[in-house]
Protein backbone atom coordinates (compact mmCIF):
# COMPACT_ATOMS: atom_id res chain seq x y z
CA UNK A 1 0.00 0.00 0.00
CA UNK A 2 2.84 2.39 0.81
CA UNK A 3 4.49 1.66 -2.52
CA UNK A 4 1.25 1.96 -4.48
CA UNK A 5 0.22 5.28 -2.96
CA UNK A 6 3.72 6.73 -3.18
CA UNK A 7 3.77 5.85 -6.88
CA UNK A 8 0.23 7.13 -7.45
CA UNK A 9 1.24 10.46 -5.94
CA UNK A 10 3.78 11.02 -8.71
CA UNK A 11 2.18 11.42 -12.13
CA UNK A 12 5.58 11.85 -13.77
CA UNK A 13 7.08 8.89 -11.88
CA UNK A 14 9.40 11.26 -10.07
CA UNK A 15 10.75 10.56 -7.61
CA UNK A 16 11.23 6.87 -8.36
CA UNK A 17 9.54 4.45 -5.95
CA UNK A 18 11.47 1.34 -4.92
CA UNK A 19 9.92 -1.39 -2.74
CA UNK A 20 12.36 -3.71 -0.96
CA UNK A 21 11.20 -7.01 0.53
CA UNK A 22 13.49 -9.47 2.28
CA UNK A 23 11.44 -12.48 1.14
CA UNK A 24 11.66 -14.08 -2.30
CA UNK A 25 7.97 -15.02 -2.10
CA UNK A 26 6.14 -12.10 -0.53
CA UNK A 27 2.70 -11.61 1.01
CA UNK A 28 2.72 -14.62 3.35
CA UNK A 29 0.51 -12.90 5.92
CA UNK A 30 -2.06 -12.08 3.27
CA UNK A 31 -2.09 -15.66 2.00
CA UNK A 32 -2.63 -17.28 5.41
CA UNK A 33 -5.13 -14.73 6.73
CA UNK A 34 -8.72 -15.79 7.27
CA UNK A 35 -8.03 -19.44 6.58
CA UNK A 36 -6.61 -18.58 3.17
CA UNK A 37 -9.46 -16.20 2.28
CA UNK A 38 -7.94 -12.94 3.67
CA UNK A 39 -10.25 -10.96 5.94
CA UNK A 40 -9.60 -7.59 4.25
CA UNK A 41 -11.43 -5.29 6.70
CA UNK A 42 -14.45 -5.10 9.00
CA UNK A 43 -17.88 -3.49 9.02
CA UNK A 44 -17.22 -1.93 12.43
CA UNK A 45 -13.85 -0.23 11.99
CA UNK A 46 -13.42 2.19 14.88
CA UNK A 47 -10.49 3.45 16.96
CA UNK A 48 -11.94 1.73 20.05
CA UNK A 49 -11.05 -1.63 18.49
CA UNK A 50 -7.34 -0.87 18.40
CA UNK A 51 -4.78 -0.98 21.20
CA UNK A 52 -1.59 0.93 21.93
CA UNK A 53 0.58 1.41 25.00
CA UNK A 54 2.22 4.62 23.74
CA UNK A 55 -0.15 7.23 25.11
CA UNK A 56 -3.19 7.80 27.27
CA UNK A 57 -6.32 6.09 25.97
CA UNK A 58 -7.88 9.31 24.63
CA UNK A 59 -4.71 10.43 22.84
CA UNK A 60 -4.18 6.94 21.42
CA UNK A 61 -7.74 6.82 20.11
CA UNK A 62 -7.26 10.26 18.56
CA UNK A 63 -4.10 9.14 16.75
CA UNK A 64 -5.62 5.93 15.42
CA UNK A 65 -8.92 7.66 14.56
CA UNK A 66 -7.10 10.30 12.50
CA UNK A 67 -5.25 7.64 10.52
CA UNK A 68 -8.47 5.69 9.93
CA UNK A 69 -10.26 8.85 8.77
CA UNK A 70 -7.45 9.72 6.38
CA UNK A 71 -7.89 6.38 4.63
CA UNK A 72 -11.16 4.89 5.82
CA UNK A 73 -12.78 1.49 5.50
CA UNK A 74 -15.01 2.95 2.77
CA UNK A 75 -11.93 4.10 0.86
CA UNK A 76 -10.48 0.62 1.34
CA UNK A 77 -13.60 -0.85 -0.30
CA UNK A 78 -13.32 1.49 -3.26
CA UNK A 79 -9.60 0.85 -3.60
CA UNK A 80 -10.02 -2.91 -3.81
CA UNK A 81 -12.96 -2.56 -6.20
CA UNK A 82 -10.74 -0.38 -8.42
CA UNK A 83 -7.97 -2.98 -8.57
CA UNK A 84 -10.38 -5.82 -9.31
CA UNK A 85 -11.11 -7.29 -5.87
CA UNK A 86 -14.81 -6.88 -4.99
CA UNK A 87 -15.56 -7.59 -1.33
CA UNK A 88 -18.48 -9.30 0.39
CA UNK A 89 -19.80 -8.79 3.92
CA UNK A 90 -20.38 -11.84 6.14
CA UNK A 91 -22.60 -12.09 9.24
CA UNK A 92 -19.57 -11.70 11.52
CA UNK A 93 -18.96 -8.19 10.16
CA UNK A 94 -15.88 -9.36 8.26
CA UNK A 95 -15.23 -8.46 4.62
CA UNK A 96 -13.67 -11.07 2.35
CA UNK A 97 -12.93 -11.05 -1.38
CA UNK A 98 -15.84 -12.42 -3.39
CA UNK A 99 -13.42 -15.00 -4.78
CA UNK A 100 -12.83 -16.38 -1.25
CA UNK A 101 -9.15 -16.48 -2.18
CA UNK A 102 -6.35 -14.55 -0.49
CA UNK A 103 -4.30 -15.06 -3.65
CA UNK A 104 -6.74 -12.72 -5.43
CA UNK A 105 -5.87 -9.95 -2.96
CA UNK A 106 -2.11 -10.44 -3.20
CA UNK A 107 -2.07 -10.71 -7.00
CA UNK A 108 -4.15 -7.54 -7.37
CA UNK A 109 -1.85 -5.57 -5.04
CA UNK A 110 1.26 -6.72 -6.88
CA UNK A 111 -0.31 -5.92 -10.25
CA UNK A 112 -1.31 -2.43 -9.07
CA UNK A 113 2.18 -1.82 -7.69
CA UNK A 114 3.60 -2.61 -11.12
CA UNK A 115 0.92 -0.59 -12.95
CA UNK A 116 1.77 2.46 -10.85
CA UNK A 117 5.38 2.27 -11.98
CA UNK A 118 6.94 1.22 -8.68
CA UNK A 119 9.83 -1.23 -8.74
CA UNK A 120 9.68 -4.28 -6.47
CA UNK A 121 12.84 -6.09 -5.41
CA UNK A 122 12.39 -9.36 -3.56
CA UNK A 123 15.07 -11.12 -1.54
CA UNK A 124 16.45 -7.67 -0.71
CA UNK A 125 17.60 -7.68 2.92
CA UNK A 126 18.11 -4.16 4.26
CA UNK A 127 20.95 -4.08 6.79
CA UNK A 128 21.23 -0.36 7.54
CA UNK A 129 19.42 2.95 7.23
CA UNK A 130 21.80 5.93 7.35
CA UNK A 131 21.42 9.68 7.21
CA UNK A 132 23.18 11.28 4.22
CA UNK A 133 23.05 15.04 4.78
CA UNK A 134 19.40 16.00 4.30
CA UNK A 135 18.74 12.66 2.62
CA UNK A 136 19.09 8.98 3.48
CA UNK A 137 20.77 5.86 2.18
CA UNK A 138 19.54 2.29 2.47
CA UNK A 139 22.09 -0.52 2.51
CA UNK A 140 21.13 -3.74 0.75
CA UNK A 141 24.01 -6.20 0.76
CA UNK A 142 27.00 -4.23 -0.47
CA UNK A 143 24.86 -1.62 -2.24
CA UNK A 144 24.04 1.82 -0.84
CA UNK A 145 20.78 3.18 -2.29
CA UNK A 146 20.40 6.98 -1.91
CA UNK A 147 16.89 8.22 -1.22
CA UNK A 148 15.05 11.36 -0.14
CA UNK A 149 12.45 9.48 1.90
CA UNK A 150 12.19 6.04 3.48
CA UNK A 151 9.10 4.17 4.67
CA UNK A 152 9.77 1.46 7.26
CA UNK A 153 6.95 -1.09 7.17
CA UNK A 154 8.78 -4.24 8.17
CA UNK A 155 6.09 -5.75 10.36
CA UNK A 156 6.58 -6.86 13.94
CA UNK A 157 7.55 -10.29 15.25
CA UNK A 158 4.39 -12.31 14.59
CA UNK A 159 4.59 -15.19 12.11
CA UNK A 160 8.38 -14.98 11.68
CA UNK A 161 8.38 -17.27 8.65
CA UNK A 162 6.82 -14.36 6.75
CA UNK A 163 9.98 -12.33 7.30
CA UNK A 164 8.82 -10.43 10.39
CA UNK A 165 11.99 -10.51 12.47
CA UNK A 166 11.85 -7.18 14.30
CA UNK A 167 14.40 -5.47 12.03
CA UNK A 168 12.28 -2.33 11.84
CA UNK A 169 12.52 -1.87 15.60
CA UNK A 170 16.30 -1.82 15.37
CA UNK A 171 16.27 0.74 12.52
CA UNK A 172 13.96 2.94 14.62
CA UNK A 173 16.00 2.43 17.79
CA UNK A 174 19.15 3.65 15.99
CA UNK A 175 17.20 6.82 15.15
CA UNK A 176 16.59 7.29 18.90
CA UNK A 177 12.98 6.15 18.76
CA UNK A 178 11.36 4.59 21.82
CA UNK A 179 10.30 0.97 21.30
CA UNK A 180 7.37 -0.04 23.48
CA UNK A 181 8.03 -3.59 24.76
CA UNK A 182 6.47 -6.18 22.46
CA UNK A 183 4.34 -9.25 23.19
CA UNK A 184 2.40 -11.67 21.00
CA UNK A 185 -1.18 -10.64 20.22
CA UNK A 186 -4.08 -12.59 18.72
CA UNK A 187 -2.41 -15.80 19.85
CA UNK A 188 -3.88 -18.96 21.44
CA UNK A 189 -3.92 -19.36 25.22
CA UNK A 190 -1.93 -22.27 26.63
CA UNK A 191 -2.90 -24.13 29.81
CA UNK A 192 -0.80 -26.42 31.97
CA UNK A 193 -2.25 -28.81 32.62
CA UNK A 194 -4.92 -28.51 29.92
CA UNK A 195 -8.04 -29.64 31.82
CA UNK A 196 -10.28 -29.34 28.77
CA UNK A 197 -8.05 -31.21 26.33
CA UNK A 198 -10.71 -33.90 26.03
CA UNK A 199 -13.01 -31.24 24.53
CA UNK A 200 -10.52 -30.34 21.80
CA UNK A 201 -12.25 -29.25 18.60
CA UNK A 202 -15.54 -28.20 20.21
CA UNK A 203 -16.67 -24.63 19.54
CA UNK A 204 -19.45 -22.74 21.28
CA UNK A 205 -20.41 -19.15 22.19
CA UNK A 206 -18.57 -17.98 25.31
CA UNK A 207 -17.25 -14.95 27.16
CA UNK A 208 -13.73 -14.65 28.56
CA UNK A 209 -12.88 -12.09 31.22
CA UNK A 210 -9.45 -11.11 32.52
CA UNK A 211 -9.79 -10.16 36.18
CA UNK A 212 -7.56 -9.04 39.01
CA UNK A 213 -9.68 -9.75 42.04
CA UNK A 214 -13.04 -8.09 41.34
CA UNK A 215 -11.59 -5.69 38.75
CA UNK A 216 -12.36 -6.66 35.14
CA UNK A 217 -9.36 -5.73 32.98
CA UNK A 218 -10.78 -7.00 29.68
CA UNK A 219 -13.71 -9.05 28.40
CA UNK A 220 -14.54 -10.55 24.99
CA UNK A 221 -17.37 -12.72 23.68
CA UNK A 222 -17.64 -14.85 20.55
CA UNK A 223 -17.07 -18.30 19.12
CA UNK A 224 -14.77 -20.10 21.54
CA UNK A 225 -12.63 -23.14 20.74
CA UNK A 226 -11.24 -25.80 23.06
CA UNK A 227 -7.83 -27.11 21.91
CA UNK A 228 -5.58 -29.93 23.05
CA UNK A 229 -3.20 -27.38 24.60
CA UNK A 230 -5.62 -24.71 25.80
CA UNK A 231 -8.08 -22.30 24.21
CA UNK A 232 -8.55 -20.40 20.96
CA UNK A 233 -11.25 -18.72 18.87
CA UNK A 234 -11.93 -14.94 18.75
CA UNK A 235 -12.47 -14.37 22.52
CA UNK A 236 -9.24 -16.18 23.43
CA UNK A 237 -7.21 -14.57 20.66
CA UNK A 238 -8.49 -11.09 21.48
CA UNK A 239 -7.87 -11.39 25.21
CA UNK A 240 -4.39 -12.88 24.70
CA UNK A 241 -3.01 -9.39 24.13
CA UNK A 242 -4.28 -8.09 27.46
CA UNK A 243 -3.23 -11.24 29.29
CA UNK A 244 0.33 -11.00 27.98
CA UNK A 245 0.61 -7.29 28.82
CA UNK A 246 -1.65 -6.76 31.84
CA UNK A 247 -0.12 -9.80 33.52
CA UNK A 248 3.13 -7.84 33.80
CA UNK A 249 1.50 -5.22 36.05
CA UNK A 250 -1.24 -7.48 37.44
CA UNK A 251 0.57 -10.79 38.13
CA UNK A 252 -2.46 -12.16 39.97
CA UNK A 253 -4.81 -11.55 37.04
CA UNK A 254 -6.64 -14.64 35.83
CA UNK A 255 -8.97 -15.52 32.97
CA UNK A 256 -12.48 -16.71 33.71
CA UNK A 257 -14.92 -18.47 31.37
CA UNK A 258 -18.66 -17.98 31.00
CA UNK A 259 -20.31 -20.64 28.85
CA UNK A 260 -23.52 -18.57 28.58
CA UNK A 261 -22.35 -15.19 27.24
CA UNK A 262 -25.89 -13.94 26.62
CA UNK A 263 -26.45 -13.85 30.39
CA UNK A 264 -25.15 -10.42 31.42
CA UNK A 265 -22.73 -9.91 34.28
CA UNK A 266 -24.69 -9.44 37.49
CA UNK A 267 -27.83 -11.21 36.27
CA UNK A 268 -26.61 -14.78 36.75
CA UNK A 269 -28.55 -15.38 39.97
CA UNK A 270 -31.82 -14.18 38.41
CA UNK A 271 -31.21 -16.35 35.34
CA UNK A 272 -30.43 -19.41 37.49
CA UNK A 273 -33.58 -18.95 39.56
CA UNK A 274 -35.77 -18.86 36.46
CA UNK A 275 -33.97 -21.67 34.64
CA UNK A 276 -33.73 -24.08 37.58
CA UNK A 277 -37.41 -23.46 38.35
CA UNK A 278 -38.52 -24.25 34.79
CA UNK A 279 -36.27 -27.31 34.48
CA UNK A 280 -36.59 -28.52 38.09
CA UNK A 281 -37.74 -32.03 37.17
CA UNK A 282 -34.94 -32.66 34.66
CA UNK A 283 -31.67 -34.26 35.58
CA UNK A 284 -28.70 -31.87 35.70
CA UNK A 285 -27.22 -33.51 32.61
CA UNK A 286 -30.40 -33.30 30.54
CA UNK A 287 -30.99 -29.69 31.54
CA UNK A 288 -27.41 -28.70 30.67
CA UNK A 289 -27.48 -30.64 27.40
CA UNK A 290 -30.18 -28.28 26.12
CA UNK A 291 -27.80 -25.35 26.64
CA UNK A 292 -24.42 -26.87 25.80
CA UNK A 293 -22.80 -29.54 23.61
CA UNK A 294 -23.13 -32.99 25.17
CA UNK A 295 -19.49 -33.39 26.20
CA UNK A 296 -19.33 -29.87 27.61
CA UNK A 297 -22.48 -30.55 29.68
CA UNK A 298 -20.84 -33.70 31.07
CA UNK A 299 -17.70 -31.74 31.94
CA UNK A 300 -19.64 -29.02 33.76
CA UNK A 301 -21.32 -31.62 35.97
CA UNK A 302 -18.04 -33.47 36.58
CA UNK A 303 -16.10 -30.30 37.46
CA UNK A 304 -18.91 -29.21 39.78
CA UNK A 305 -18.71 -32.63 41.46
CA UNK A 306 -22.44 -33.15 41.06
CA UNK A 307 -23.90 -36.44 39.84
CA UNK A 308 -25.29 -35.83 36.33
CA UNK A 309 -28.50 -37.70 37.15
CA UNK A 310 -29.32 -35.47 40.11
CA UNK A 311 -32.63 -33.63 39.72
CA UNK A 312 -31.91 -29.98 39.02
CA UNK A 313 -34.59 -28.85 41.46
CA UNK A 314 -33.16 -30.96 44.30
CA UNK A 315 -29.57 -29.68 44.23
CA UNK A 316 -28.26 -28.38 47.53
CA UNK A 317 -27.20 -24.74 47.76
CA UNK A 318 -23.56 -25.84 47.66
CA UNK A 319 -24.10 -28.03 44.59
CA UNK A 320 -25.99 -25.27 42.79
CA UNK A 321 -23.21 -22.81 43.58
CA UNK A 322 -20.59 -25.15 42.09
CA UNK A 323 -22.62 -25.64 38.90
CA UNK A 324 -23.15 -21.88 38.55
CA UNK A 325 -19.41 -21.35 38.97
CA UNK A 326 -18.67 -23.80 36.15
CA UNK A 327 -21.26 -22.13 33.92
CA UNK A 328 -20.41 -18.48 34.56
CA UNK A 329 -17.11 -18.17 36.39
CA UNK A 330 -14.78 -21.08 35.66
CA UNK A 331 -11.12 -20.18 36.19
CA UNK A 332 -8.89 -21.22 33.31
CA UNK A 333 -5.35 -22.33 34.28
CA UNK A 334 -3.55 -20.25 31.66
CA UNK A 335 0.23 -20.34 31.89
CA UNK A 336 1.13 -18.28 28.84
CA UNK A 337 0.16 -16.88 25.47
CA UNK A 338 1.43 -18.94 22.54
CA UNK A 339 4.69 -17.48 21.13
CA UNK A 340 5.09 -15.31 18.03
CA UNK A 341 5.19 -18.31 15.72
CA UNK A 342 1.46 -18.79 16.45
CA UNK A 343 0.52 -15.11 16.85
CA UNK A 344 -1.39 -13.14 14.23
CA UNK A 345 -0.12 -9.75 15.41
CA UNK A 346 2.45 -8.02 17.60
CA UNK A 347 1.53 -5.69 20.46
CA UNK A 348 4.02 -2.91 21.15
CA UNK A 349 6.44 -1.30 18.72
CA UNK A 350 7.49 2.23 17.78
CA UNK A 351 6.00 4.73 20.21
CA UNK A 352 3.17 6.75 18.64
CA UNK A 353 4.24 9.86 20.55
CA UNK A 354 7.19 10.06 18.15
CA UNK A 355 5.16 9.74 14.91
CA UNK A 356 3.03 12.39 13.15
CA UNK A 357 -0.50 11.02 12.71
CA UNK A 358 -1.15 13.20 9.64
CA UNK A 359 1.82 11.83 7.69
CA UNK A 360 3.21 8.84 9.65
CA UNK A 361 6.58 10.64 9.54
CA UNK A 362 9.07 10.33 12.36
CA UNK A 363 9.20 13.34 14.68
CA UNK A 364 12.87 12.54 15.32
CA UNK A 365 14.18 11.86 11.80
CA UNK A 366 12.55 13.86 9.02
CA UNK A 367 12.22 11.88 5.84
CA UNK A 368 11.65 8.57 7.63
CA UNK A 369 8.08 7.27 7.77
CA UNK A 370 6.50 4.26 9.48
CA UNK A 371 3.48 2.12 8.64
CA UNK A 372 1.79 -1.08 9.71
CA UNK A 373 2.64 -3.45 12.51
CA UNK A 374 6.04 -1.90 13.24
CA UNK A 375 4.07 0.87 15.01
CA UNK A 376 2.69 0.40 18.51
CA UNK A 377 -0.82 -0.34 17.25
CA UNK A 378 -2.65 -3.67 17.20
CA UNK A 379 -6.29 -4.36 16.52
CA UNK A 380 -8.93 -6.91 17.36
CA UNK A 381 -9.33 -10.09 15.36
CA UNK A 382 -11.47 -9.60 12.27
CA UNK A 383 -9.62 -7.57 9.66
CA UNK A 384 -8.67 -4.65 11.91
CA UNK A 385 -4.92 -5.17 11.58
CA UNK A 386 -5.22 -5.28 7.80
CA UNK A 387 -7.20 -2.04 7.91
CA UNK A 388 -4.40 -0.46 9.95
CA UNK A 389 -1.94 -1.67 7.30
CA UNK A 390 -4.01 -0.25 4.41
CA UNK A 391 -4.63 3.08 6.18
CA UNK A 392 -1.17 3.74 7.58
CA UNK A 393 0.47 2.48 4.38
CA UNK A 394 -1.59 4.75 2.14
CA UNK A 395 -0.93 7.80 4.33
CA UNK A 396 2.81 7.12 4.62
CA UNK A 397 3.10 6.49 0.88
CA UNK A 398 1.41 9.74 -0.12
CA UNK A 399 3.25 11.80 2.48
CA UNK A 400 6.67 10.29 1.72
CA UNK A 401 6.26 10.93 -2.01
CA UNK A 402 5.22 14.52 -1.36
CA UNK A 403 8.14 15.03 1.02
CA UNK A 404 10.62 13.59 -1.49
CA UNK A 405 9.18 15.65 -4.33
CA UNK A 406 9.47 18.89 -2.36
CA UNK A 407 13.02 18.06 -1.32
CA UNK A 408 13.89 17.26 -4.92
CA UNK A 409 12.56 20.60 -6.09
CA UNK A 410 14.41 22.45 -3.32
CA UNK A 411 17.64 20.71 -4.33
CA UNK A 412 17.09 21.65 -7.99
CA UNK A 413 16.51 25.28 -7.03
CA UNK A 414 19.65 25.33 -4.93
CA UNK A 415 21.65 23.88 -7.83
CA UNK A 416 20.16 26.51 -10.14
Write the layout of secondary structure elements.
Elements: H1 2-8, E1 18-20, H2 28-32, E2 41-42, E3 50-51, H3 57-70, H4 73-82, E4 87-89, E5 94-97, H5 102-115, E6 119-121, E7 126-132, E8 135-140, E9 143-147, E10 150-152, H6 167-174, E11 179-185, E12 189-191, E13 203-212, E14 215-226, E15 230-232, H7 234-249, E16 254-258, H8 268-278, H9 284-291, H10 294-303, H11 317-328, E17 330-332, E18 334-337, E19 345-350, E20 368-370, E21 378-379, H12 384-415
Parallel strand pairs: 1-6, 10-20
Antiparallel strand pairs: 2-5, 3-21, 4-5, 7-8, 8-9, 11-19, 12-15, 12-18, 13-14, 13-16, 14-15, 16-17
Helix pairs in contact: 1-12, 3-12, 9-10
Based on the structure given, which CATH architecture of the largest domain is correct? Answer: 3-Layer(bba) Sandwich
* Large-scale geometry: elongated
Strand content: 15-25%
Which stretches are poorly predicted, pLDDT < 50 over at least 5 residues? Answer: none
Which strand order do you get reading across the main beta sheet? Answer: 17-16-13-14-15-12-18
Residues in helix, %: 25-40%
Q: What would you report as the Rg, rounded to the nearest angstrom? A: 25 Å
**CATH homologous superfamily annotation of the largest domain:** FAD/NAD(P)-binding domain
What is the CATH first-level class name of the largest domain? Alpha Beta
Mean pLDDT: 94
Oligomer: single chain
Number of domains: 2
How many beta strands in the DSSP annotation? 21
Please work out how many helical segments DSSP would assign: 12
Distance between the first and last residues' Cα: 35 Å
Amino acid sequence: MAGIFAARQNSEKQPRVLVLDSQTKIGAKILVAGGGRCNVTNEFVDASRFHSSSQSENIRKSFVARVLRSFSADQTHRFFEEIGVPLKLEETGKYFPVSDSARTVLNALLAELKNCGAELRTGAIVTALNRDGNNWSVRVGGEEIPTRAVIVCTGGLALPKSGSNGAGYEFARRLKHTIVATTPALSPLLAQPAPHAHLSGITLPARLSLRDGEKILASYSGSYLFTHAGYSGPPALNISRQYAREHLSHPRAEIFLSLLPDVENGSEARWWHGWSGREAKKTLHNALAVLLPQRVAETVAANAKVHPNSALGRLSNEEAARVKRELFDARLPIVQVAPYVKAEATAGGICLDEIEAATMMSRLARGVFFAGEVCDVDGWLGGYNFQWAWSSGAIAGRAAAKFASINRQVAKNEEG
